[in-house]
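Appendix B, example 12.
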Amino acid sequence: MNLRQLEHLLAVAETGSFSRAAERLHLTQPALSRSILMLEEELDARLIDRMGRRNELTPLGDIVVARARSLVFEAEDLRRSVALLKKGTAGPIRVGLGSGPGAMLMTPFMVHVAQRHPDVRVTITRGSIEVQLLQLRQRTLDALVIDMRSIAPAADLVIQEAAEMRAGFVCRSGHSLLADAAKTVSFDDVLRYPLASTHLADEVGRILMRHFGPRANPHHAVSLRCEEIESLIETVRQSDAIFLGIVAAARRGMASGELAELVTDPPLVSTAPFAIVTLVGRTESPSMTLFRRFVADWLHD
């Protein structure tokens, strides 16, 4: 038994097809079949039930695949660690960012690296949580920074809370709702204008309805929905739309005087917990310390 055979088994298990697995591995299908057959002969057990074009793991195959995945990943980590040491470099930073962390971190971090650490290679991706988790598990990403409420605990994930950010309403500084400082702004007043937000977790919806009643259900209240917070903030800057989300995401516009926080009565008391997610047992490149330090310094209200 060798790692190459285990990699071949994992490819068949993940694709469910000898032909697709062979294509991924750049092998001929007969060569892949021989490799799996030799592994089965060595273990003296059938690992895959071959049913025409369908291929399913046997119960024993499921167990072997779980162990094989751990062994293959450990071997990859060993190769990666040795390569980093041989190169004498800090290693690359490959991270995925959720919508909120992306608005807060992406541009500032790239500017920070370009100015202070020009030798460090950085790759930042955006996308759905499902896609980013797949990339993390496939080792094409080293870490994710996402809303902790959007991810379920899993045995292979390390979920570390990084910051808790305050949520609220933001509008342009010349908005009519800000004209009379003595006037109390209700949620009904807010709903007279387009409400702009990202896709909100069910827990956030419950918090909103607890504060403002059934009319605050995000499915009905939010009329402008987008996962790019920068676009939402720019829309608010150029219109009477009101942003609902992480207040600190609008910090540059608020600092310049173009945007302002809109306080309602009752006020919205809600926070978003952001977490750094990594794989259990994953060897991080030394430069990930730089990224973790930046996240800790930058994610604050």
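Residues 59-87 form the longest helix (29 residues). Residues 164-271 form a domain with the D-Maltodextrin-Binding Protein; domain 2 fold (CATH 3.40.190.290).
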